[in-house]
Amino acid sequence: MKIGRIYIDVFRAPIEKPVVTSFGSIPSRGAAMLRLEDNEGVVGWGEIWGNFPTVTTEYRAKLAAFLLPDLLLGKTVDDVPSFYHGLVDSLHVLTVQSDEPGPVASVLAAVDQALWDLAARRAGLPLRKMLNPNAVDRIPAYASGLNPGDGPETVIAQRAHGHRNFKLKIGFEEAIDKGNVRQIVDGMSPGERFFVDANQRWNLEQAKFAADWLAEAGAGWFEEPMLADAPADQWQELKAAARIPLAGAENLRGLDNVETALHWLDYVQPDVGKWGGVTDCFAIAQMALSAGKTYCPHWLGGGVGLMHSSQLLAAAGGDGLLEMDVNQNPLRELVLAGALSVGDGYVDLPLDDGIGLQPDISSMEHWRIDQTVLD
């Protein structure tokens, strides 16, 4: 496939309630979507990660417009993983010189997504079937992003929408965290599960203390209790002390770093938009499953990235769940247009080619921030 045109569309929508985390809040929802069109008019979609801080969405879109023409236009792609790794190698010096490995990685991750989507559409296959002919069409999911101010109420609302698994954000005052967990546990039905995410909030001793009471409460996993890049000996000490499975990897870059983290992580959660794209996230999924771990893709952005995450999980197999942010995000909902609906804790994936949908950009026009077309 030969790349003939690049589109970068940036949108930002207001929301009534910010998304709250232990490190800050997200007061609006943005999306930077990348489209690659080949010389036959077939289009593949990717999404550039950029949810926090909010300014990063617009900045990374501009970085993509600066970097991608020379890298992509007129280039023929026969092997997506090989081409993607070639891009990573060619931009390595830039990531060092600019000291911006994260932004560059997220741009290339979106390129990789779009190339895989494009290749699957050309092949007439859902992306999951291109990655694994035996991929399933139905996957378990969980309601994510439950805020500290109304987490228990959100569980009730999302249960009514078909969810049976829930993840609460913690890392606030102890009374708030314990109160929310207690209410959720007291209201759970048989077969339901709940998880927690501290968003890298605590040091080792604080994380060990929280792990104790969360284990007693029955939490299914303890996500990012400490900094993702905390020393390995600290993670190993936490793993040895904790009576609860540990989850993470959304904030790790590089296969070697994730492989090391498999020594203490039980649930492995790479983000298809932050680093690695489809190519390396699928490799991580296979690596994790081979090590007896559970692959659960991380995603807290727009609809394109969520569709890529769902395709990856379906292709990888295992016992992982799809993260579905249930905070208000009109951009995500317009992109999905009902493509993913939850029932009894599961999602049935579309049977269409590629990621399973063709986003209607015109439906989001009133929230457009920028558009770049490169050919």
Care to describe what's here?
This protein is an alpha/beta fold and 375 residues long. The protein folds into two domains: 3-124 and 361-374, Enolase-like, N-terminal domain (Enolase-like, domain 1), CATH 3.30.390; 129-348, Enolase-like C-terminal domain (TIM Barrel, Alpha-Beta Barrel). It is 41% helix and 22% strand. It has 13 helices and 14 strands. Strands 4, 5, 6, 7, 8, 9, 10, 11, 12 and 13 form a ten-stranded mixed sheet that branches. A hairpin with a 4-residue loop joins strand 2 (24-38) and strand 3. The longest helix is centred in the first third of the chain and has 23 residues, at 101-123. The mean pLDDT is 96.
Q: Span between N and C termini?
A: 15 Å
CATH-scheme architecture of the largest domain: Alpha-Beta Barrel
User: What count of domains describes the coordinates?
Assistant: 2
Largest sheet: 10 strands, mixed
What is the topological layout?
Elements: E1 3-21, E2 24-38, E3 43-48, H1 55-72, H2 80-90, H3 92-98, H4 101-123, H5 127-131, E4 138-146, H6 151-160, E5 165-169, H7 174-186, E6 193-197, H8 204-217, E7 222-223, H9 232-241, E8 246-248, H10 255-261, E9 267-268, H11 277-290, E10 294-295, H12 303-316, E11 322-325, H13 330-336, E12 342-343, E13 346-348, E14 368-374
Parallel strand pairs: 4-5, 4-11, 5-6, 6-7, 7-8, 8-9, 9-10
Antiparallel strand pairs: 1-2, 1-14, 2-3, 4-13, 12-13
Keywords:
single chain, 375 residues, alpha/beta, Enolase-like, domain 1, TIM Barrel, 2 domains, 10-stranded mixed sheet, 4-stranded antiparallel sheet, globular
